[in-house]
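Example 301.
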Amino acid sequence: MRQVWGGIEGGGTKFNCLLGTGPDAILAERTLPTTSPGETLGAVARFFEEHVGSESGQGLAGLGIACFGPIDLNPRSPTYGSVTTTPKPGWSGAEVVGFFRGRFGVPIGWDTDVNGAALGELRWGAGRGLDSLVYITVGTGIGGGAIVGGRPLHGLLHPEMGHIPVTPAIQAAGPGVCPYHGGWCLEGVASGPALARRAGRPAPTIPADDPIWEDEARALGFAAATIALTLSPERIIFGGGVLKQEQLYPRIRHHCLAALNGYLRVPAITDHIDTYIAAPGLGDRAGALGALALGIDAARP
Ligand code: ADP
Ligand code: ZN
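Predicted structure in complex with zinc ion:
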């Protein structure tokens, strides 16, 4: 029987699932709406059940789940594998790993959505050949995942780069939307909903030449500088819905360099900022393919 892996990118609005062995060998794919945990996880499980088994000639070797959070990643914790304190109705305390373990009995990789996307980009996307990488998504929220020494970075909990404080000049943009930090953190001022609140219209409809994008690029460029100075990754990838505004990339690079002001004298930054701050190589599939990579790694002896 042919061995295949499953990847699940769990988001607050949708779950992206795929089955395969890598980006060039995706055998099936499905997007499901995020409703209640029971309904959504059940639908995900049925997707895999439809495609594996003796009839299809495909055996499931492992599953990877890259999930919105915060999530419990501590293997010694009694609530390992669950979503912890999300404001998303019904999902606080939802057992995700336990659900799939009970259903499939295969090794399961489990990490944050952005650690997953970072791993996917490192293995198959814009981070190939590197050992370290940060992936930032700028969407409904802002999150950052990190790979260090080829592995997703965990610590006391997991990185929460979306909530790093921003400078007073950036805070001046307005009250912000973070339920914890208002306009004092990156997500509060630079997420899609923050842009919509400031502009008074949905972020995708803000014209490309609106000055709001310069403020957005400054906030994200300063965040990139903060990350370059703290984690020292070999590359920083920006993805998520807001980065569909491609005019942001050169401006983010500009503001990152301005914030660093020549301090990090390394050619990867001073001469190659165009590749140091990059778009996802896997596009919108970074998360689901990253989850697949987590599944493949979990199944390794
Ligand atoms: P999510 O974060 O919900 O998983 P996305 O990464 O697609 O999903 O982000 C959705 C956010 O991105 C929304 O706030 C939306 O308004 C914003 N967005 C989507 N497309 C664009 C666009 N073309 N320009 C600016 N913002 C966009
Ligand atoms: Zn915050």
